[in-house]
Amino acid sequence: MKVCRFKSGDPAVRLGLVTDDAIVLDLTPAGLTGLHAVLEAADPVALLQQAARISLPRLALADVTLCAPVEHQEIWAAGVTYLRSKTARMEESDFSATAYDRVYAAARPEIFFKALGEKVSASGEAIGIRRDARWSVPEPELALVLNSRGQIVGCTIGNDMSSRDIEGENLLYLPQAKVYDRSCALGPWITLGATEAAVRGWTIGLAILRGGRRVFTGETSAGQIKRSFAELADYLCRCQTFPHGAVLLTGTGVVPPDSFTLQPGDIVEITIPGIGTLRNTVAVV
Predict the structure, then answer these.
(1) I need a surface site. Which of 76, 137, 141, 165 has the fewest CB within 10 A?
(2) How many CB atoms lie within 10 A of CB 175?
(3) 248 near 77, Cβ under 8 Å?
(4) What is the pLDDT, as a whole number, of residue 21?
(5) Residue ranges, the chain, pLDDT below 70
(6) 150 contact partners, CB below 8 Å, separation of at least 6
(7) What pLDDT sits at residue 94?
(8) Are strands 246-249 and 74-79 parallel, antiparallel or unpaired?
(9) From CA 206, how far away is CA 208, in angstroms rounded?
(10) Is 57 in contact with 23 (CB distance < 8 Å)?
């Protein structure tokens, strides 16, 4: 099942159930007005199935404005979980190569803070490239959605925007390369109820359009993520709590060539068949 946050004709954000990727059922009459209540339920899928039994207002997806599928959750990210990502990070800097090589093989994963929920861009909104960076790329990722108990209850699509020249200059600059205005996009909605085995069969596709022409395409599989989803979630939740839950990006396996950098006006599309397509336009921040 796919649950979204949306607006329709007024500033109020509502919760919706997406059917056939074309219709949104407004869950307001069922008393479900916030994402947190669904994610914290003992069985989110059963809760939504029960809500769908009543007559709910039907809206065309084309007639609503999607909001990022996150409220007060923190967004974190795991790095170097794909072999391709490790290779790319080693290539961008001789200074940092040994560290990236070691973390890929280490018992403890690399995990870093990415964004607050209120700073996340929704599908259809702008994503940012830093004005002081020369080499900016999108990072298409599967994102795990966790409740306050650390349980994985769903997944969505994430774009972990990165300034590779800043990160490559010095590993200690990672927060500046990764955390800035509009550096994270999530959406278009959350898929609930999929097992890890099923999700690992999904592809993750990236397309970048410039002036209506595709200038880069690439694809990987969620099955190429080295660590289990449970392991990544366990490390994230060790020694800290998330009263509102969290979203964990799981790393990227699609890396544009070193000669490529994003430009203002580019359109970035990330598609995962079991979820949908996250689409954003690039802007300088």
Answers:
(1) 165
(2) 13
(3) yes
(4) 80
(5) 84-97
(6) 233, 234, 236, 237, 242
(7) 61
(8) parallel
(9) 7
(10) no
Tokens standing for residue 98: 């040994």
- Provide the H-helix boundaries in 57-148: 83-92, 97-105
Q: Is 284 exposed, middle or buried (0-12, 13-18, 19+ CB in 10 A)?
A: middle
**What pLDDT digit, counting tens, does each position of 121-178 carry?**
999 999 999 999 999 999 999 999 999 999 999 999 999 999 999 999 998 999 999 9
Instruction: Please tell me whether residue 70 adopts helix, strand or coil conformation.
Output: coil
Q: Which pair of structure tokens corresponds to residue 8?
A: 């329709």
- Report pLDDT for 83: 73
Residues 6+ apart with CB under 8 A from 103: 79, 80, 86, 109, 110
**pLDDT the model gives residue 88:** 56
Would you call 68 helix, strand, or coil by DSSP?
Answer: coil
Q: How far is CA 19 from CA 2, 47, 60, in A?
A: 7, 16, 10
